[in-house]
Amino acid sequence: IKSNILRMMTDRGIRVTVVPAQTPVDEVLAMQPSGVFLSNGPGDPAAVDYAIDNVKNLLGEVPIFGICLGHQILALALGGKTEKMQFGHRGGNQPVKNLLTGKVEISAHNHGFAVSAESDLHDTEVTHVNLNDGTVAGLAFPSKQAMSIQYHPESSPGPHDADIEFEKFIAMMRAAKEGVKASRSKK
């Protein structure tokens, strides 16, 4: 995980605990996290089957936010597919259209794999598309409190176009926490 990702979260008041990707789900849940962040990383996402299995078991338990490799792992955990790109996306100034707002955001990328547009992602909404080649650049699965983006919001490209993604994750964690409080008070 990049130190700037951690800074972006701690600057927003999130207390962060970093664990290795192979940490068993029961150990993660025993920490009673408000959410789980799936970080970036190198290589083929299909090669990290342990992470895909962990995310499958975390879905619906806590809010999840993935970026870059984390985006691809979430897609695979949801039943999607990834593919090696002929030419990867590298560097800043990548135009990504936010399909929820209609706005184009300038983003930074560093990946050689992409979520296949032909993926059957089971009630998952494609939220962002790279305008250079149409690749899937964002996903949302509201019923399981999961979201992801292919690019790097911590790189702060442009006028901090991607900062909103951290705010959405925080809002998702707060909503989940309030939902738990509400269900406890009904008992």
Provide keyphrases for this structure:
187 residues, alpha/beta, seven-stranded mixed beta sheet, 5 helices, 28% strand
- Helix fraction bin: 25-40%
Major sheet: 7 strands, mixed
β-strand amount:
25-35%
Q: How confident overall, as mean pLDDT?
A: 89
Global morphology? globular
Order the strands across the largest sheet as they lie in space.
1-2-7-6-5-3-4
Contiguous helical run count: 5
Give the helices and strands, then pairings.
Layout: H1 3-10, H2 25-30, E1 36-38, H3 49-58, E2 64-67, H4 69-77, E3 82-98, E4 104-115, E5 125-130, E6 136-141, E7 146-149, H5 164-186
Parallel strand pairs: 1-2, 2-7
Antiparallel strand pairs: 3-4, 3-5, 5-6, 6-7
Helix pairs in contact: 3-4
Account of the protein in words:
With 187 residues, this protein is α/β, with parallel strands linked by helices. 30% of the residues lie in helices and 28% in strands. It contains five helices and seven strands; from the N terminus they run H-H-E-H-E-H-E-E-E-E-E-H. The protein has helices spanning 3-10, 25-30, 49-58, 69-77, 164-186; strands spanning 36-38, 64-67, 82-98, 104-115, 125-130, 136-141, 146-149. The protein has a seven-stranded mixed sheet, covered by helices on one side. A hairpin with a 5-residue loop joins strand 5 and strand 6. Helix 3 (49-58) packs across helix 4 (69-77). The model has no long low-confidence stretch (mean pLDDT 89).
What would a concise description of this structure say?
The chain is an alpha/beta fold and 187 residues long.
